[in-house]
Design goal:
122 residues, HIT family, subunit A, globular, alpha+beta, binds guanosine-5'-monophosphate
């Protein structure tokens, strides 16, 4: 997969402060905010501040500092939202057309708060 980054995407606009967001956590390299169309009682999006399109792009090209910061942010959200100690959660990272990725800026969905059904539908 190639990774041309389109900085007009909605998450780039959120990072530039052009559109508001309900921030859950902000760190040096990472921003987390509530999904605008939540699919579960908890639905947080975690994004790097850098211009990465997909999970593999982030893992291949991000600095170690960015990767560690992102991973620790996920852990903090799981802790602070009670996901780690609760009934569990799902982390989803869609990439590309078959996965139905809508926003071409890498993000992990953290969803929780209800039974989440089978891992894949269809
Ligand atoms: P994807 O399909 O790319 O994995 O998921 C994109 C997610 O971004 C969707 O769950 C959608 O509801 C969310 N989203 C799209 N636009 C906005 C927005 O302007 N603000 C927020 N908070 N979430 C958005």
């Amino acid at each position: 997969m190639t990774h041309p980054y389109d900085d007009t995407n909605v998450f780039a606009r959120i990072l530039r402060g052009e559109i508001p967001n309900a921030t859950v956590l902000e760190t040096e390299h990472t921003l987390a905010f509530d999904d605008i169309t939540p699919q579960a009682p908890v639905h947080v999006l975690v994004i790097p501040k850098g211009p990465y399109v997909t999970y593999d792009h982030f893992c291949a090209q991000a600095s170690e500092a960015e990767i560690v910061d992102f991973a620790r942010a996920v852990a903090r959200i799981c802790d602070e939202r009670g996901l780690a100690a609760g009934e569990g959660f799902r982390a989803i990272a869609n990439a590309g057309g078959h996965a139905g990725q809508e926003v071409p800026h890498f993000h992990v969905h953290l969803v929780a708060g209800r039974p989440l059904g089978p891992m894949l539908a269809g």
